[in-house]
Amino acid sequence: SKRSSMLVRERYRVHAAKYLGHGSQGTVCRALDEISGVPLAAKLFSAAQAKAGAHEAEVLRRVDGCELVTAYVDFCELVKPSEDGEVSGVVLPPASVLLMEFVTGGDLLARLLA
């Protein structure tokens, strides 16, 4: 079955169809905190990428306050539900999700070099 979003921890709506980018360690999509209404970025990790995702979450927690990315960080290791799907090449559900501040205006490297 195909679906375009998933709800994480009964609060965060991850929109796989709102694809932002990808790299060697995960795929980034738009997300929303359904309680506060705050837009987020969600980085989706496969089981093979989950260790890298946990490390990335720890790095983001440590750089909180450096004006790069607010440490709105929640690393969610997910139990795979019975219903799978794929939207725009993004496999749902991922093994883990890193939720962070949604920042516009380019990638992190570009912000560091500015």
UniProtKB/TrEMBL annotation:
PROSITE patterns membership: PROTEIN_KINASE_DOM
Domain Protein kinase span(s) in chain numbering: 14-114
GO molecular function: ATP binding; protein kinase activity
InterPro entries attached to this UniProt entry: Kinase-like_dom_sf, Prot_kinase_dom
TM ranges: none
Name of the protein in its database record: Protein kinase domain-containing protein
